[in-house]
């Protein structure tokens, strides 16, 4: 009685307490008639014990309801795809007619003719259209997962002839929880802070989630940007399922600000669309479905908008990746209540209202896909055939990639390509291409002439030509640049190409030379070497790092060991030699790295193992400041790198606890981008003293600006002020030099500065777009002899940039570790003024402060967990930074060497 009364008040409806289920069905399914649902199928309200929209449903309850549908109906099968970091299941419900349900594998096989141009054209009448409805990739956009329950109920329980036809002609997959961990973080917040009656004040605690909010997953990753890089387990499991079906229509259900109404595609023509994609995707498929969406919302009297915002530019989203696979991906956004009810410019927005809009457009999606089934099936077949045609016209016929000194990272990139179902081949022989050596067995060939040409292009190519200058997110997304591997583009179709690769290599670690009574060596160039170092330290092994290269081994077969080589002297250990060997052997297998046992410290070339340039590495004890003011995604990235890549416990210190933090226990402290104004003078003084007494401070993006402005470090910024530069010398030099190239804008190069009415969410964005750094890729020159650059084998390093922190190169010639080149832009959009400031500025600067040091990054080296080329600099900063004793100049270097 209380629940139905509350729900009635919430909806503003007169619901009879004797029939809450019928009333709720009528609200969410207004076109359905009484008695048109199978009573053997429980409604979500009957199963959960409360009306949908009166409470935020936990992930375990959502999974349990779908399991119940699977139990009571032969139309439904529920599958667990994987688990999250917090051990919550990822599930997908497949709903279709019973005869289809009994032949899912056969239907998948028959649909292969749509994606493989070599197979005969199929009979489209006999194939189902596949519709994927995906919910809750942003955990606090919570109405979507509630709508998933209602849509699953409707498709299972409805007895209408139309629904029967849908299930005969379609396979509908429902992913109710794309982000289970974020979902529960958000639902707990909203449920814990709700009131009776509802508090609609936007400033009420219910509507203002505490940091970090429920948008992201466990490591604060935005899973909606992870469809291409696949860094998270949720994304990898979802991608494997996607490639079983290749959906023809895929919807991503979202929420936007409370003042918004409802958004569906088409998006902004041309400017937010990718030229690789056939125009029919945007101009035919998208427009066709939009008519169904519009009618469904018109019938409810709900307002909506289209064509103004959001990107279909890159395949990083769940609503764009299907466009690159012959389907059509679409974003739905509903104005959010972020709580049970909240005031907005359109009145009070209630949770049930937002859910109802999603239910309406979800049903409209199935209706539109089924009614024009052949249109979508034929498009997919034509899409993959046209990919081969486009590839034949493209100058590059193959990409060769690999790094013989880093098989781990090479193998990691290979695994990514295979997850995207890309055709990859072994390299047939050792070759030198573009002055880069590629070795057979340690390098691979990716032909462009394949059905996945468009994804191949997206993973490898640069893009600097755009139709507009306003973007929703990044404009550079090449994974080849992010991994930092050697890549060569080949126009010769006769390039030696070995056998197809079907799985990543099973890399096995080893201890070459067997047990040693003297020392073990580990090259730092392997991606897993830092992780092995941390594991060695945690096992109680004393470790050293070489600051200069040397040669070891036999005179007939000497081995080069580069900067950063880990040295494990056996006699220096507290453990017996047998135990040291057992630990080294175990870790070599566990982390797939190769140690070399040596019997002498007398090198064949370069320094000996007893040199002062082989320095003991203190066990890493790292921390990062977190909480209100810090950028949650960057905190999550640092946390992820420490936890998942290094196996390093990273202390996350709340900003409010900094005053009582015993900084002396930490070797390194990380400040990500954000605002640190909550740290008072006493806190700043405390931080400064810790650095001066030997601490290593690592700052990213505008945290680097903050450290400079607080006087913690004596470096300088290049800051634009009133259209000029704070550093007038640098500005004069820039003017004297040649104007750098700028990305081409083909449609609207310079929007007029006007204040025409536009959506409140995006006011001013069109004017600001031309002054943006829209998530783009740049080339830097990196000092690989500096400990921050240890492990890299090439001075050319690609960095990702989406901020406006401009560091001036240090006056100390040894302190600028990485510097942007004179023509740095590689891929993406940047305004002319910002590009002028980026060129020749510093990307990474190390500054000596007392006996400590500050390592300043202008950018985020860990961007979205996949920028492996620069995340190596971050791990070096955390692990090796405490060893940096920066020389003041050539004189001090000479004195040190003497």
Automatic annotation (TrEMBL):
It holds the Pfam family Peptidase_M14. The active site is at residue 333. InterPro entries: Class_I_gatase-like, Peptidase_M14. Residues 54-355 form the Peptidase M14 domain. The keyword Cell wall biogenesis/degradation does not apply. One of its GO terms (cellular component) is extracellular space. One of its GO terms (biological process) is proteolysis. Gene3D superfamilies: 3.40.50.880, Zn peptidases (3.40.630.10). Residues 1-23 form the signal peptide. SUPFAM superfamilies: Class I glutamine amidotransferase-like, Zn-dependent exopeptidases. Keywords: Carboxypeptidase, Hydrolase, Metalloprotease, Protease, Signal, Zinc. Its cofactor is Zn(2+). It comes from the Bacteria. PROSITE patterns: PEPTIDASE_M14 (PS52035). GO terms for molecular function: metallocarboxypeptidase activity; zinc ion binding. Belongs to the peptidase M14 family. This is Zinc carboxypeptidase.
């Amino acid at each position: 009685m209380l629940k139905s009364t509350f729900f009635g008040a919430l909806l503003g409806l007169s619901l009879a307490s004797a029939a809450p289920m019928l009333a709720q069905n009528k609200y969410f399914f207004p076109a359905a008639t009484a008695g048109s649902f199978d009573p053997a199928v429980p409604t979500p309200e009957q199963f959960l014990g409360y009306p949908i929209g009166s409470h935020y449903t936990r992930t375990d309850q959502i999974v349990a309801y779908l399991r119940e549908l699977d139990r009571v109906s032969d139309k439904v099968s529920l599958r667990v795809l994987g688990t999250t970091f917090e051990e919550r299941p990822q599930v997908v419900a497949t709903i279709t007619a019973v005869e289809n349900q009994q032949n899912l594998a056969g239907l998948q096989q028959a649909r292969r003719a749509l994606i493989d141009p070599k197979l005969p054209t199929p009979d489209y009448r006999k194939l189902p259209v596949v519709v994927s409805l995906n919910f809750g990739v942003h955990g606090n956009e919570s109405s979507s997962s509630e709508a998933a329950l209602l849509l699953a109920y409707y498709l299972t329980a409805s007895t209408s002839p139309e629904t029967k036809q849908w299930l005969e002609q379609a396979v509908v997959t429902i992913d109710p929880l794309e982000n289970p961990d974020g979902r529960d973080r958000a639902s707990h917040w909203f449920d814990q802070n709700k009131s009776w009656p509802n508090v609609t004040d936007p400033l009420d605690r219910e509507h203002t989630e505490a940091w970090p909010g429920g948008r992201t997953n466990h490591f604060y990753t935005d899973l909606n940007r992870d469809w291409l890089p696949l860094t998270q387990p949720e994304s990898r499991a979802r991608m494997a399922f996607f490639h079983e079906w290749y959906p023809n229509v895929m919807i991503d259900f979202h929420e936007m600000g409370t003042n918004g109404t409802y958004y569906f595609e088409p998006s902004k023509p041309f400017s937010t669309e990718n030229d690789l994609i056939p125009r029919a995707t945007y101009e035919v498929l998208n427009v066709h479905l939009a008519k169904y969406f519009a009618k469904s919302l018109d019938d409810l009297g709900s307002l909506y908008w289209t064509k103004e915002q959001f990107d279909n530019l890159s395949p990083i989203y769940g609503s764009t990746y299907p466009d690159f696979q012959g389907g059509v991906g679409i974003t739905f956004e509903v104005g959010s209540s972020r709580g049970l009810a909240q005031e907005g410019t359109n009145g009070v927005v209630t949770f049930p209202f937002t859910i109802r809009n999603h239910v309406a457009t979800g049903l409209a999606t199935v209706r539109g896909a089924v009614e024009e089934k052949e249109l979508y099936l034929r498009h997919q077949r034509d899409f993959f055939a046209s990919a081969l045609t486009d590839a034949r016209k493209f100058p590059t016929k193959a990409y060769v990639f690999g790094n013989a000194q880093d098989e781990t990272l090479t193998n990691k990139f290979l695994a990514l390509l295979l997850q995207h179902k890309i055709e990859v081949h072994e390299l047939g022989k050792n070759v030198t291409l573009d002055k880069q050596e590629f070795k057979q067995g340690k390098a691979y060939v990716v032909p462009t002439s394949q059905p996945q040409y468009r994804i191949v292009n997206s993973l490898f190519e640069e893009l600097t030509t755009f139709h507009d200058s306003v973007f929703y997110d990044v404009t550079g997304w090449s994974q080849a640049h992010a991994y930092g591997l050697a890549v060569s583009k080949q126009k010769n179709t006769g390039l030696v190409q070995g056998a197809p690769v079907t799985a990543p290599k099973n890399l096995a670690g080893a201890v070459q030379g067997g047990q040693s009574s003297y020392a073990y060596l580990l090259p730092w160039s392997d991606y897993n070497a830092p992780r092995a170092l941390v594991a060695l330290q945690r096992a109680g092994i004393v470790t050293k790092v070489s600051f200069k290269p040397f040669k070891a081994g036999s005179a007939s077969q000497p081995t080069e060991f580069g900067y950063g080589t880990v040295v494990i002297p056996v006699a220096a250990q507290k453990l017996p030699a047998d135990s040291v060997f057992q630990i080294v052997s175990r870790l070599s297998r566990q982390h797939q790295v190769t140690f070399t046992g040596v019997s002498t410290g007398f090198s064949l070339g370069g320094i000996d193992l007893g040199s002062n340039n082989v320095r003991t590495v203190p066990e890493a004890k790292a921390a990062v400041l977190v909480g209100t003011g810090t950028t949650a995604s960057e905190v999550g990235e640092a946390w992820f790198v420490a936890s998942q890549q290094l196996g390093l416990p990273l202390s996350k210190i709340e900003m409010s606890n900094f005053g009582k933090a015993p900084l002396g226990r930490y070797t390194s402290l990380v400040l990500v981008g954000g605002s640190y104004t909550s740290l008072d003078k006493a806190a700043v003084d405390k931080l400064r003293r810790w650095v001066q007494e030997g601490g290593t401070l690592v700052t990213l993006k505008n945290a680097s600006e903050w450290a400079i402005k607080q006087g913690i470090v004596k470096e300088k910024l290049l800051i634009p002020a009133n259209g000029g530069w704070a550093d007038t010398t640098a500005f004069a030099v820039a003017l004297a030099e040649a104007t750098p190239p700028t990305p081409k804008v083909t449609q609207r190069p310079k929007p007029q500065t006007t204040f025409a009415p536009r959506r409140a969410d995006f006011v001013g964005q069109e004017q600001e777009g031309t002054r943006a750094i829209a998530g783009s890729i740049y080339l830097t020159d990196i000092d690989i002899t500096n400990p921050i650059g240890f492990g890299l084998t090439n001075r050319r390093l690609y960095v990702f940039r989406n901020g406006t922190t401009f560091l001036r190169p240090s006056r100390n010639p040894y302190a600028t570790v990485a510097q942007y080149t004179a023509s740095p832009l590689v891929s993406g959009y940047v305004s002319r003024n910002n590009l002028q400031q980026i060129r020749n500025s510093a990307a990474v600067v190390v500054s000596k402060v007392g006996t400590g040091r500050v390592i300043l990054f202008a950018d985020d080296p860990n961007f979205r967990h996949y920028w492996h080329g620069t995340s190596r600099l971050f791990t070096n900063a955390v692990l090796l930074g405490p060893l940096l004793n920066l020389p003041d100049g050539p004189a001090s270097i000479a004195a040190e060497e003497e």
